[in-house]
Amino acid sequence: MEGVMRSDAKICGESGTESSPRGLGCSLRHFACEQNLLSRPDGSASFLQGVAEKSREWLIRNTCEAVVLGTLHPRTSITVVLQVISDAGSLLACCLNAACMALVDAGVPMRALFCGVTCALDSDGTLMLDPTAKQEKEARAVLTFALDSVERKLLMSTTKGLYSDAELQQCLAAAQAASQHVFRFYRESLQRRYSKS
Amino acid sequence: MEGTVRGLGCSRRARGLNCGTFGVLQEIFGSISTADGSALVKLGNTTVICGIKAEFAAPPTDAPDKGYVVPNVDLPPLCSSRFRSGPPGEEAQVASQFIADVIENSQIIQKEDLCISPGKLAWVLYCDLICLDYDGNILDACTFALLAALKNVQLPEVTISEETALAEVNLKKKSFLNIRTHPVATSFAVFDDTLLIVDPTGEEEHLATGTLTVVMDEEGKLCCLHKPGGSGLTGAKLQDCMSRAVTRHKEVKKLMDEVVKSMKPK
């Protein structure tokens, strides 16, 4: 796959899309996305949402591997490079969203899109979606899920802290509901981008 | 210290489509005499040995009343042909991080119990888990081995003498660690969203489209739900896994209690 050098692909050139601030029924923070902002790679995206640890890389890699149709491109290596610009909580979920958008931008064939959602449970058992860094630190448990776009199945999960089985189901249901907003945002963002050209 | 062997008698791999059988689980306590605590766990063919050494260290400046627990999982070339010698590979690092998360999340030991003198001296427990035979399901085996070894650890009494301000270790007086919870890991191999096999062998893991590991403690609370990618799971399938994990926890806890009881009168 050859990289195409686009002369108009500057960071300020392509205007990104932004989602509305926390609307009714959705407690995700404001998010914005810009695509094709780097000229050299085949595809790129920056995802702004409300470690270079091996473990996180392993999680993101396995999630991408589950959705990318690798059999269509044998003897090909797809490298996904994620650079954290700022971390204000829910970092892994943001990385997953960025990875998905970048794969779409690169035109890699996938069987589904995926999105990351983080839930935090505080000591009372109250559920918070998309927690800030402060909320994450004070929470009793933080659960991050990756859900696919076709049937909202659970692709990846990683959790921190102690929680009960019922709380897990509650968080999963809330994450599935929230993922609809993220997928709608993906769709709008892509529509906006391709309606110009 | 002699070791004691007990086993859970369910035959591994009489495979039908209802793949709910676990491998034979054997534990041997106290196999390493030079370590402060050790355990060898055989889960079917997969063999993991855990050795714990306790050393002194200065407690962290931001938490002066806490000690350290440092786990490390080693997957050497002798356990399987897929590993090469050299720096730890990705799988070993992920396993080490997993064990560190389980220790942190489950609060298996309260780090405050490891403090000897706040701000000056604390215990650091180096937990080394080495796989001797890799036949799948390494995370379950490592968690069992760690739990068994921690139950086996005996720390000597340490007093800070007034005059010299040095630590005096009394090797004759040893006490066991206060183990607060007993996290037990149950792993599943997922095949195309339909079939779930519990306690997968190496071959099954290799062919699976995804894996899931659930770590549960005795109250039914989950310490970790580790699903690193792979094919998707519905909420209902997840619920099945939880109930399987609960039964597994009961079996393992029973086995461990038997072994500990048989070792107590010295």
General description of the model:
Chain B: Keywords: Acetylation, Cytoplasm, Exosome, Nucleus, RNA-binding, rRNA processing. Chain B: One of its GO terms (cellular component) is nuclear exosome (RNase complex). Chain B: It holds the Pfam family RNase_PH. The complex is a heterodimer of chains A (197) and B (266). Chain A is an alpha+beta fold. Helix content of chain A is 35%, strand content 20%. In chain A, the strands form 2 sheets. Chain A has a 4-stranded antiparallel β-sheet, sandwiched between helices. In chain A, strands 1-2-3 form a 3-stranded antiparallel β-sheet, with helices on one face. In chain A, strand 4 and strand 5 (127-129) form a beta hairpin. Chain A starts with 16 loop residues before the first strand and ends with a helix. In chain B, strands 1, 2, 3, 4, 5, 6 and 7 form a 7-stranded mixed β-sheet that branches. Chain B has a 4-stranded antiparallel β-sheet with strand order 11-10-12-13. Chain B is 25% helix and 35% strand. Chain B is α+β, with helices and mostly antiparallel strands. In chain B, a hairpin with a 4-residue loop joins strand 12 (210-216) and strand 13 (221-226). The longest helix of chain B has 29 residues, at 235-263. Chain B contains 4 helices and 13 strands. The interface between A and B is medium-sized, with 33 and 33 residues. Strand 8 (163-164) of chain A pairs antiparallel with strand 13 (221-226) of chain B.
Class based on secondary structure composition and strand pairing of chain A: alpha+beta
Cα end-to-end separation of chain B: 10 Å
Mean pLDDT of chain A equals 81
**H/E series of chain A:** EEEHHEEHEEEH
Computed over alpha carbons, the radius of gyration of chain A is 17 Å
Low-confidence stretches of chain B: 1-19
* Helix content percent band of chain B: 25-40%
Q: What's the overall geometry of chain A?
A: globular
Q: Would you identify the regions of chain A where 5 or more consecutive residues have pLDDT less than 50?
A: 1-15, 20-25
Which pair has the most extensive contact?
A: A-B, 33 and 33 residues
